[in-house]
Here is the input.
Amino acid sequence: MWRGPVVQARKNAVNTVKGKVFSLHAKLIAIAAQKWGNPEDNPTLHAAIIKAKKDGVPNDNIDRAIKKWTGEDASADQIVEILYEWYAPGGVALVVSTLTDNKNRTVANIRHIFSKYGGNMGESGAVAWMFHQKWVIFIDPEKHSYESIEELVFETEAEDIVSESGYTKIITSLEDHHSVEIFFEEKWIELYESKIDYIPDSDIEIDDFDKALKFTKMIEAFDGDEDVNFVSSNEVISWELQDEVDTFIEKNTFRT
Here is the structure.
């Protein structure tokens, strides 16, 4: 299940060390620019640039990323998105989105992570049919109450609004997300985060400590891989069990 910003602090610690944040933003910009290199005429590219700037990506990095697809940088390697579909222990389904300029490196890394934590690879389409691809917008309820957002959301093309994991989530189609984001920005509503996700049709609960530990460590490994864009899954782990797992990991993490 989409964890969003809930465990972002731990993810950020990994991402900062590996330089993953800048790298992923550059790849997302490069892919968006293939449709049209002018952000004024390309809402997806415009959104990607705004997000990159919010995370401190320098303008030079953004310009180089755009040139990868506009043909101005002839030496740039092509960046492609590859989806991997796997089953984690307990029958949990996962969709792993990667952005890469080296397919051999990426597939080797992904296979290694899944094998290490007991995952089983499915054929193309074996898992994806359990999910629907949507755009999810996160809003911090401490800055804007759920009730105030709910009143506004009916004026947009958003498909749903839910309160989950300490955040208000607005779910839209891939086509409508940009107009929904602009609507809220014009209302001076701060958007915490906005991402593509695969929304599962049904959930599978993990109630065993060892399986929850393996699953959490596997997700952490994906978060630390430079090519992984996002991971969507249909697991449900209770807050009590997740806290127990996180505490165990924290106590058993070697620090230099």
Observations:
- Confidence is low (pLDDT under 50) at residues 2-18.
